[in-house]
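Service request form, structural biology core

Requester: graduate student, group of Dr. S.
Request type: structure prediction, single chain
Budget code: on file
Notes: please return the result as structure tokens.

Sequence provided:
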Amino acid sequence: MKTSETISLDKNKQRSVAAKTKKLKKAIKSGKISIREDRKERRLNAEKARGLIYIAHLPHGFYEEEIKKYFKQFGRVTNIKVCRSRSNGNSKGFGYVEFAHPDVAKIAAETMNNYIMFKKRIVAEYVPYEKRPKSLFHGKQSMPQKFSKQRQRLKNEKTKNKEIDDETHLNQCRSRLTRLQKRLQKINKFGINYDLKPVDVPKGVNKKVSH
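Core staff response, request fulfilled:
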């Protein structure tokens, strides 16, 4: 008897399914039938066959389009990624270039490493597949055009005026005093004794700043 809580198969149908499954396994094993790779596997296999380089100290104005035009001289460029800020879309000064062939990527990295471009020394390194960042060229990229000045201003105001609890405030004060202490120690190495006394320090935070 069939109910909503149980699943059963007719014996004749079950035998037929088992026979078809057996034939299908034999066909796959012999190579007569090939299993289609899913999108993720195809992407991973394509990434293994390509070469990736990491580039840093990118000069201002040397972005996706400019990078593609420049690196095309080495070989076919398949992907480009300029790492950008999520808050305003501006370049962070480093990125990645993917080539169709690993050997081309190695040559490009060797050639461009320590290359002077617009008064900046370019850093270029070949990235093996094992060290490749996951999902590097997937998802929407933050671009400056997506962030208007008004949106940036509102976001900055919201961040600065955000309400925080007492524990977070104490941690922020400790962090500021620690940074201040490190700066005073650097100044002291040059023979400059600077007397500084912090004010409005909340309770629970050490007010002493050692040189």
